[in-house]
């Protein structure tokens, strides 16, 4: 692979603390985050060239983000660093089990979106796909990719504090999913967006779109489900001691893309050849990447060497 995977979406700083403690006290700390930015870092650590289209400022939080992204080998698209922009933040509160909930202080308007020649995949998701005016820019951009030799992946990563109406949000997710080859959801996304529906029913709804070829639903400590029109796999998660879950879903997403890349299923292939064996392998690889992240503080995805060393 020569051209980088293109990731589009927010980069922000997570202010992480435990329930009952105020930011800045009792060990609460600020760490680089934002779901798409986390995916970009995860891809780069797994050896996949990656370019991120985002927007953050040159304030102290922005400097922290820039150092983190550059330090992990993520290319930044022109216009992503804007001196006039205030870097966004998310306050992440951890419960007694290490599970995070979020409150956001964010605005989103990306720089110009263009597809570089040879780009094998475009990934987007999270707040960037629902918060205007940037969400409209993403919808229009994905609409231009229908005839391009590129694989599109989507992780809606629903945030009820940003989009509290599940019916309207599900409609928006369906519209974006119809422009995507692969859609990844969490069980929490499913419970919010389609309460009462099983993972199989949700996958069937999304696979009804002509372009969508694969739906993957993560189930936390229970692993993940992968579904195509011809295959269905259930992958268990390894037993681990959870430190926190911050960034675990993003590590899963980046490893899923990396696994597909390693099998030549991105680019013009658009997942053709993703049979049951390959689906099981890439979902297992992603589950194990997420598991490593859960054993560490914050959004800290594994490198390819760490992944191989832990699970080989």
From TrEMBL:
Gene3D superfamilies given for it? Answer: 3.40.1190.20
Question: Has keyword Transport?
Answer: no
Question: Which InterPro entries does the annotation name?
Answer: Carboh/pur_kinase_PfkB_CS, PfkB_Carbo_kinase, PfkB_dom, Ribokinase-like
Where does the chain cross the membrane? none
Q: Which PROSITE patterns match?
A: PFKB_KINASES_1, PFKB_KINASES_2
Example GO molecular function: kinase activity
Question: Could you tell me which residue ranges the Carbohydrate kinase PfkB domain spans?
Answer: 5-302
Q: Which domain of life is it from?
A: Bacteria
Question: What keywords are assigned to this protein?
Answer: ATP-binding, Kinase, Nucleotide-binding, Transferase
Indicate the family of this protein: Belongs to the carbohydrate kinase PfkB family.
Protein known as: Fructokinase
